[in-house]
Write a structure and sequence with these properties.
three-stranded antiparallel sheet, 0% helix, 10 strands, mainly beta
């Protein structure tokens, strides 16, 4: 929700905007599913996003932890492949996520990387899912020892 002054001759009035708190946008090439992190999901509690789709997100159970999980979906059957580990969407940051795919025959190629960018725009937390470059792994190794490696 945000409150802004009205334009023009209505300057003494205020406009109240009701907006969702969380919005997911899938800018990746994958079919993505998003849900709150807990065991028993009903189909209506899972948000599924095809390429360039966006959707609002609400916690399906306020008594559970406010953590989210993500999965790739089979584009033909819409079945969930495997859920990721839980992560917070209320913290502004960006990170890479490794998701299992079923499109390859070798174990090394069974994963896809996506970048998750979480930003804040007008009190709306925007979660953008983008393609990650598979040739440049999203890891950084820092040597904090006294020895050269």
């Amino acid at each position: 929700m945000s409150i802004k002054p009205a334009p023009g001759i209505f300057y003494r009035s205020k406009i109240i905007y009701f907006t969702p708190r969380f919005v997911f946008k899938n800018e990746s090439d994958y079919y993505i599913a998003v849900a709150q992190n807990y065991e028993a999901h009903q189909e209506y509690q899972i948000k599924k996003l095809r390429k360039n789709e966006w959707t609002s997100f609400h916690w399906s159970d306020s008594k559970k932890k406010m953590l989210t999980m993500m999965s790739l979906c089979d584009p033909i059957s819409s079945n969930i492949i495997q859920w990721s580990g839980p992560f917070q969407i209320s913290v502004i940051r960006n990170f890479a996520l490794k998701l299992l795919t079923l499109s390859s025959t070798t174990m090394a190629d069974n994963y896809a990387f996506v970048r998750v960018n979480i930003t804040l725009h007008d009190m709306i937390v925007c979660i953008r899912i983008e393609n990650e470059d598979p040739t440049a792994p999203p890891y950084k190794i820092v040597n904090l020892t006294n020895y050269e490696i």
